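[User] At your convenience, examine this fold.
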Amino acid sequence: MRDLGVVALSIVVAIILAKTGALAGILTSTQEWGFLGSLVAGIFFVSIFTAAPASVVLFEIAAANPIWEVALFGGIGALIGDLLIFRFIKDSISEDIHWLMRKTKQERLVSIFRPKLFKWLIPFIGALIIASPLPDEAGLAMMGLSKMKTSVFIPISFVLNFLGILAIGLFAKGLM
């Protein structure tokens, strides 16, 4: 129940920030910060509620700055955002889901999740979602529920977000 409350509260806060325009104002003000602005926008780049304004800010920063540096700092920021979500999912929510799975139709669910294909397919699909323009939460959930080690997750998250922000920078420079 505690985890559900934290998730619900964070969704409510994100919706309020998005609806009031406060988030857009905060992100817009970071454009003048250059690479620090890339870092901050990168943190917000990973969430369904903040990805659109963060993408616009990264586009604007990349138009006025070297795209490799914007992608580097934005990728670091996105890694920070992803890591926060990943650790929450891996440490808290996955325990709740595993408990729930044991309580309802245990034999059938365990047989579905036991094959080796599932062990590798779910994190792979999660990585594809992170690399895509889709919000990272679904991919992070897949990777967290698969019990992926944080040491494996960090370089994957950074590279995928770096490439996504680099693509935004290339569009900003008119190179794509």
Notes: The radius of gyration is 18 Å. The mean pLDDT is 76. The chain has nine helices and no strands. The first helix runs from residue 2 to 20.
